[in-house]
């Protein structure tokens, strides 16, 4: 599994969802709150209702330099991205790993009603904004596209990793009775429209679970 180690000088800090820590040096101090990096209690609660973490933890180097490490939960890549005013990112529900600087993480509401109703929990996106640097955890192989204005990419929703906030996002329904009943590709596709950069992930949690399910031991039922 990939691991990210962040080196901090005195006065510097990194923010992550609670429970992401893998290891750290003794000089690092922790502060856990619903307000850290989330823009307040109300936004934190909305994130929690959408399936993301309620609490965020700030790891700070106070008097001495230190190191904090975060390990990925699935095979894949940890992708860095600069965050600037006017340059936000939308990341899949569990994709945000950590960030430095004044970076905020909030639930992103979709502009189109169809995305909110038909997408379900699989289409929950978090918005990463502010100023600093963030790292996203994407599973499997990562494929990047730079979409031109008006260029559209239709993607199975589980493969959407993250994308620039300039990219339009909507949920489209697969057309055709045969496609819906016998296609096996699901009922919905995510439509990503440029301009902007898109990061896709080749491994989905559902596909991984389906692949390993036949090899899991069966539970023992009492006679």
UniProtKB/TrEMBL annotation:
Top-level taxon: Bacteria
Listed SUPFAM superfamilies: TRAP-like
InterPro entries, A to Z: AIM24, AIM24_sf, Trp_RNA-bd_attenuator-like_dom
Pfam families: AIM24
NCBIfam families recorded: TIGR00266 family protein
Matches recorded under PANTHER family: ALTERED INHERITANCE OF MITOCHONDRIA PROTEIN 24, MITOCHONDRIAL (PTHR43657:SF1), TRYPTOPHAN RNA-BINDING ATTENUATOR PROTEIN-LIKE PROTEIN (PTHR43657)
Protein name: TIGR00266 family protein
Species: Nocardia macrotermitis
